[in-house]
């Protein structure tokens, strides 16, 4: 009632606000509602965090893109340039080597920098479904145990992020990641085909995690994520996204093109529909033998020194009352991951997609978002400042005081 303006921070979320969450207010005050899709600042999330890629980009298209991110479109033309693709790949490989060094130092785990770096870095929450990611990892592990000669494109799964201190289920998800990692990283049948790591200290490491990613995991239950900004940080650094049709993922896919995005899972409408019909996880459990086998494997205590009680609360929630509907998206997620492994093996194609992701994410600059707030919400106009005065710290101090 007291608000001058109400905005969702991605198109889907604004739509959900006006139709559902705040539907009656929207009927009364439609003029107050608008969408302002979030953005991230390219100065921190690319220039500061990824000097190698910044240098390569600026060498080709100058530096104007740093304050006008739409200029990255000029990179599109270089996606077909073999020499440029090679250098793009080398920058990424250097970042992955450096991250591999941190992982070795911090966790004592040796990861292969040439493997696919599959990264899920974000707050730990059931709606963000880090445990769906784990179901994929356990499925790959299960495949290897059933047939140690099976052909699997090598992957390094990297997790990081914090859980709220009192959020029991999120803490249990972190425990599950560690437990699965412990078994997989030491199984000689697996070798160096799969490695799983949970990196502590998101605050310190995020700067190198986003730039070093090949694949960005944005796998929230459709309708649950508000916008996401991690998805934008990854895309800016040339990671490809595996994502649900949720939040800003939708807009990223629209910008980069569906041929450069890995989409899976139910839509928000389908999630509501499935819930209205009565979502029954047991149908999926008994209907999908692969799913049943891996859930039973986790439930058996295989990853918990044969303690079958440790992960029971997590399994119970998946089987009895899972509002995040992991099982409904499981097969689609798996199929999508399998197609990603095939594309990964075609290095030229992957690099091309990576370049196009960076080239087409200009919309997700916070400069654009802030300009929209200024123009359409605050009705404030730009003021010219002498930037040179502000970049001198001492001058800035004098101005503040
Ligand atoms: C980017 C960022 C987020 C948002 O991450 P999502 O993946 O969009 O959930 C949250 N916290 C910090 C500290 C971040 O840097």
From TrEMBL:
Cofactor(s) needed for function: pyridoxal 5'-phosphate
InterPro entries (UniProt xref): Glycg_phsphrylas, Glyco_trans_35
Catalyzed reactions per annotation: [(1->4)-alpha-D-glucosyl](n) + phosphate = [(1->4)-alpha-D-glucosyl](n-1) + alpha-D-glucose 1-phosphate
Top-rank taxon: Bacteria
Matching Pfam families: Phosphorylase
A single GO molecular function term of this UniProt record: glycogen phosphorylase activity
Keyword Glycosyltransferase: yes
Protein's name in the database: Alpha-1,4 glucan phosphorylase
Organism name: Limnospira maxima CS-328
Record lineage: Bacteria, Bacillati, Cyanobacteriota, Cyanophyceae, Oscillatoriophycideae
């Amino acid at each position: 009632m007291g608000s001058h303006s109400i905005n969702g921070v991605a198109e889907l979320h604004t739509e959900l606000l006006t139709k559902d969450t705040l539907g009656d207010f929207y009927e009364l005050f439609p003029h107050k509602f608008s969408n302002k899709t979030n953005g991230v600042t390219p100065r921190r999330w690319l220039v500061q965090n990824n000097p190698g890629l910044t240098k390569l980009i600026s060498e080709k298209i100058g530096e104007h893109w740093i304050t006008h991110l739409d200029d990255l479109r000029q990179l599109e033309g270089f996606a077909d340039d073999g020499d440029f693709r090679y250098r793009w790949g080398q920058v990424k490989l250097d970042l992955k080597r450096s991250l591999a060094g941190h992982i070795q130092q911090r966790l004592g785990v040796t990861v292969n920098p040439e493997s696919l770096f599959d990264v899920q870095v974000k707050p730990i929450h059931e709606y963000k479904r880090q445990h769906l990611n784990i179901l994929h990892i356990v499925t790959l592990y299960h495949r290897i145990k059933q047939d140690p000669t099976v052909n699997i494109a090598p992957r390094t799964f990297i997790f990081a992020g914090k859980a709220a201190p009192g959020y029991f289920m999120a803490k249990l998800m972190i425990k599950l990641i560690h437990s699965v990692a412990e078994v997989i990283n030491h199984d000689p049948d697996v070798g160096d085909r799969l490695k799983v790591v949970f990196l502590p200290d998101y605050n310190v490491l995020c700067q190198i995690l986003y730039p070093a990613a090949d694949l960005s995991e944005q796998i929230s239950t459709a309708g649950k994520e508000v916008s996401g900004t991690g998805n934008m940080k990854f895309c800016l650094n040339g990671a490809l996204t595996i994502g649900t049709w949720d939040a800003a993922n939708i807009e990223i896919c629209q910008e980069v093109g569906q041929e450069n995005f890995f989409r899976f899972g139910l839509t928000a409408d389908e999630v509501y529909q499935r819930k209205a019909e009565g979502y029954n996880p047991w149908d999926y459990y008994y209907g999908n033998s692969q799913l049943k086998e891996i859930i039973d494997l986790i439930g058996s205590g295989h990853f918990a020194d044969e303690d079958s009680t440790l992960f029971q609360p997590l399994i119970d929630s998946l089987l009895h009352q899972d509002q995040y509907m992991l099982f409904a998206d499981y097969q689609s997620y798996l199929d999508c991951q399998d197609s990603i492994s095939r594309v990964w093996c075609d290095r030229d194609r992957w690099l091309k997609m990576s370049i196009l992701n960076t080239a087409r994410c200009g919309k997700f600059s916070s400069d654009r978002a802030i300009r929209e707030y200024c123009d359409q919400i605050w009705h404030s106009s730009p003021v010219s400042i002498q930037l040179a005065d502000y970049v001198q710290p001492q001058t800035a101090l004098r101005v503040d005081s």
